[in-house]
Amino acid sequence: MNPLDGNAMAGDLRELFTVDVTAAHYTCAGCGHADAVGALILWGQEMGHVGRCPTCEDVVLRVVTAPDRVFLDLRGSVRLELPRTGS
Amino acid sequence: MGIISRGFGGRRRESVPGLPPGQYLTHDFPVLSAGPTPRIPLDRWSFTVATETGEKKKWNWQEFTALESEDVTVDIHCVTKWSKLGTTWRGVALDTLLADVETAADYTMVHSFGGYTTNVPMEDLLDGKAWIAYKFDGEDLEPEHGGPARMLIPHLYFWKSAKWVNGLTLMNDDEPGFWEAAGYHMYGDPWLEQRYQGD
């Protein structure tokens, strides 16, 4: 199977945040690489989104969508920088 | 298309024997992967059991495949709702691998090449309930399906049957693995539809 890029989880992340998180910048906990969430390499779409750092392949974030809940696991990211609306 | 379609909803899925609730039958073997497929040369493969006291027991490929193996035919159930019935595997029972391991641990963490983990209670690995499989349908297990060797725990959802296994850590307390930490159920019984935390 081939991965997608992080932009493919824009719809699921829209359920969690009022801003477009794919435009936010993450900092990878594994290697310190920083880039837009939309640039993550996206695996595992059937069970949930697994966003891996394009530099070191570590898992930066995971999004699991249950019928009644969405789980966001950010332990692979030391920082998420989100643009403020209107700025 | 007519107004009445006999094909849609005409047969309850639960009516298929061996199919847990909410599952559908597939004859394919879908590939799900949380990361790139590792390619592990057999001369670099090993499997290590680490006990709760730090004792370790390790097998290389030659030692592992020299252990007594079993041919098993089992049904497998993926949490993404496909089930495949009557799959045939060859592997080494966890009973065999753990036979000489001194432990009182109640829980285990399965480890894989590539960093994947999943937690399984010890009792779910013993008494002929789990294997490390290295053949599927009479052929060497392909990397896409977890080769050289994968866990096979057919009574739990298939994410517990970790691909590309390389070790087992025995633990006194339960801890979440890769998908469990991200919201999936700690145990994963398909007959109870234990898909997500709280199910």
Could you characterize the architecture of this molecule?
- The complex is a heterodimer of chains A (87) and B (199).
- By secondary structure, chain A is mainly beta.
- Chain A has one domain (4-81).
- Chain A has one helix at residues 10-14; strands spanning 4-5, 25-28, 34-36, 41-43, 49-52, 59-65, 70-73, 77-81.
- In chain A, the strands form two sheets. A five-stranded antiparallel sheet of chain A has the order 1-4-5-6-7, with no helix packed on it.
- In chain A, a hairpin with a 5-residue loop joins strand 2 (25-28) and strand 3.
- The longest helix of chain A is centred in the first third of the chain and has 5 residues, at 10-14.
- The N and C termini of chain A lie far apart (39 Å).
- Chain B is mainly beta.
- Chain B has a single domain, classed as Sulfite Oxidase, Chain A, domain 2 (Alpha-Beta Complex).
- In chain B, the strands form two sheets. In chain B, strands 1, 4, 5, 8, 9 and 10 form a six-stranded mixed sheet that branches.
- In chain B, a hairpin with a 4-residue loop joins strand 6 (107-112) and strand 7 (117-121).
- The radius of gyration of chain B is 18 Å and the shape is globular.
- The interface between A and B is medium-sized, with 19 and 20 residues.
- Chain B: This is Molybdopterin-binding protein.
- Chain B: Residues 1-21 are annotated as: Disordered.
- Chain B: It comes from Paractinoplanes tereljensis.
- Chain B: Pfam families: Oxidored_molyb.
Please render the helix and strand layout as text:
The complex is a heterodimer of chains A (87) and B (199).
Chain A lengths: L3 E2 L4 H5 L10 E4 L5 E3 L4 E3 L5 E4 L6 E7 L4 E4 L3 E5 L6
Antiparallel strand pairs in A: 1-4, 2-3, 2-8, 4-5, 5-6, 6-7
Chain B lengths: L23 E2 L20 E5 L5 E5 H6 L3 E8 L4 E12 H5 L8 E6 L4 E5 L9 E6 L2 E2 L9 E3 L12 E7 L28
Parallel strand pairs in B: 1-5, 2-11
Antiparallel strand pairs in B: 2-3, 4-5, 5-8, 6-7, 6-11, 8-9, 8-10
